[in-house]
Amino acid sequence: MTKLKTSLVATAIVALCGATASAQTGKHIAFVSCPILRNTEPVPCWLGEHAGELYYLGPQGDLQAEFYPPQFNHKMLAEGIATNERYCGGIVLKQAKASVLPDFDATCNVMLPAMGYSERKDLRGPGPSGHRPAPGEKAAPEPPRPRPPQVQYTAPFTPKEFVATFDADTDRMWRSAQGAMNEALRYARAAKAKQITVTGYRAAIKLADGKDFVERESVAMSRAKVIEEAIRTQGLPEGAKLEVKWVTRPSASTGTERDAAARKVVIAVAP
Amino acid sequence: MRSDAHRRSWPFAAGAASLMALSLAVAASAQSQAEKGPGAIGDVSGQTPAQANQAQRAPTPASPNITPGFTYDWWEPGDGQTLGAEAAYPNPHGQVGLLNASGPINTKGHAFFEPTGTNGRACVSCHQPSNGMSLSVDSVRDRWRATGGKDPIFAAVDGANCPNLPQGSAASHSLLLNHGLFRVFVPWPPKNADGTAMNPEFTLEVVSDPTGCNLDATYGLKSSNPHVSVYRRPRVVANMKYVVNGGSPFNIKDGSPMDRDPETGRFVNMNIMADAREPTPKTQAVNAHLTHLQGKAKLSDAQLKQIIDFENQLYVAQSLHQKAGNLVEPGGPSGLGPKAMHAGTPGLGDNFETPVFGYFDQWAKPKAGDPQSEFRASVARGMEVYFTRPFYIRDVTHLNTVGLGNPIKRTCATCHNARLTGMDFAPGWMDLGTGNQPWADTLEATKELPLFKLTCKAGKAHPFLGRVIYSRDPGRALISGRCSDIGAITMQQFRGLAARAPYFSNGSAKDLKELVDFYDKRFEAKYTDLEKQDLINFLSVL
Q1: pLDDT digits (tens, 9 = 90+) for A152-164
Q2: Would you tell me which residues 39-58 of chain A have a C-beta closer than 8 angstroms to some C-beta of chain B?
Q3: Which of A43, A73, A128 sits opposite B464 (nearest CB)?
Q4: How far is A64 from chain B (nearest CA, A)?
Q5: Within 13 Å and on the Cβ side, how many CA atoms surround B3?
Q6: Residue B124 in contact with residue B39, Cβ under 8 Å?
Q7: Which CATH fold would you assign to the domain A160-270?
Q8: Which domain holds residue B461?
Q9: Which of B349, B276, B330, B314 is nearest to B496 (CA)?
Q10: Domain boundaries, chain A
């Protein structure tokens, strides 16, 4: 291929990508694909591919980061809001989530070279991959941040719901779900709750290709049961009854952030 | 589901229980309670009664043979000497130092040092001061030569490949003599905290077993008291404030609830055993006495307190190195020697403000022609390799599955992140590959171990090995019953490494070079020869 032809093809790809990005800006998008890792410095960035376009999900981070990266050897359900920004070779997805799907898939194993891209150091969580600070310089990346102070619950107490959300097709409790459960239990103790009702749900997620990704039927029950186990392990407040139930019918897909929010357990606390 | 285990008391009097009473107590407990999941009630873990039952079936010497007057650096059970406030013992790299922070220990009548069971062993038998409170394979071989195989460490119960083998024959003790491995027998299926049987997520078959123990009619999987036998190294009993530090409601690795101290109700960090089967040093002591020591009844509360108090004030680290010289001289690196362990504060060392073992700047610049200075500079470079040299870590369950991504580009210190020990600050069991195929079989020594086939039930799988896994040691999964735990082993501390080869829980790395080589191969780290040697030198001074 001559230099001219190469240049024309490259221009066409850029134009196509630009048009795609522009048309999708602000739109919620969800797709199932293998995750792709770009070997950038100092840490790699994670991408997903859908309909010939790369989407930037986020950097390798730490457990305090908002974005938890996907895993090789597993497909992912990628979700987020498309922006008009490009990073690391992909359209940046705002509020990106990558749910690791349970089935083993050895084809999900693609690492791209850096190709001149680098990762933004300011997104990097704490850890030793940065550099040792010079005398007087602040350590970068910063060590773990202290937790914010807890909300103090005081009377009057009213019925209150706490929502633990989950990644797609899993009952794995990440930090946010643990936090919701802990808050529910703190509120129940403060309110001397008589009843705690745990209800598990499953969701359908509208994909970018128009199909629905429907979570497996058992996950509503298993989500409810992991919350139940966690509550019992931490100690059910004295005098409180615990009811555990689940809704097997999936939520209706919407093609919005509400699809992710429907992968949940609601913990209702009644004083 | 688990429920308020810590609020319940174990329904039999401490110290008064015969094994029969122990079994009956578990049965009574099982009827009245619905404890699900591993753990302990009172100070007895769910698996202990079954294990104690098997231990009592294993033969013991008619008269325990304790060789008197042996003067090598070997601590005889019941010899009654005083263990000084500070002590140092030679090893191939130099000397390991011990610090008893509460002062000299009078070991006469002390439960850690006395043979409290029926086979002549004491805790100290396998946690030797001269071996950094673990046991080196060199010491094992010395004891074999010195006693003709009669030392209590060779007791049939777990010092032989299987209790059914002819004792006194080296072949019957090959795993201990070759790799420093003791038999760890755990009930199958796993036990809940209340002693009832768990419903594991996988089935377990024996593919091959050079020891014969897993197929044995008395000790094997099809016996009347079915047990799985795996083979592991004794862990270091020292520096415990680091080992037991922490504990939170949730396991950061998989989101599951953490075990609690059954007596205080506090969450524990589940880092004291290779498979985290015992939640506290106290339940571990109860279990070890009934199994390794073949005790007939539980230790008294006073004896247990004596053991725990001793462990909690004991600090161990290398203090002298043949090539690096005095490791604890004033002005040297702050993280070396047992006094540094005593003075230090547990915490996360995965950052530049509080690096795991501190900085080694004092040693960074070698003086030309000075071998000690050059070796120290190598150690300093080794620390930098350990702390800052990235490589891709992939397909490690409970590291690549915890929200960091698979693979991640990080360093040794990512997993070995706890200050001054290099353990994992979180519950540290991971499937590094030393137990599961395909990686385990790159370690030649594992071929002497049993091979199991584990088949996960529908809907369950190991994250990176699928539904059918071949394993030499299923690790945590033998306790939790979970497919995601197959092959996961809790990492050990790095202190006193020079005193206690071989390494990995299955003793498959005979020296520090084999250990570094495994990581280099497993993660394609592509260490240069210099980086490897620097890492080895660094590890040898800890």
Answers
A1: 999 999 999 999 9
A2: 39, 42-44, 46
A3: A73
A4: 10
A5: 10
A6: no
A7: 60s Ribosomal Protein L30; Chain: A; (3.30.1330)
A8: 392-540
A9: B314
A10: 3-122, 160-270
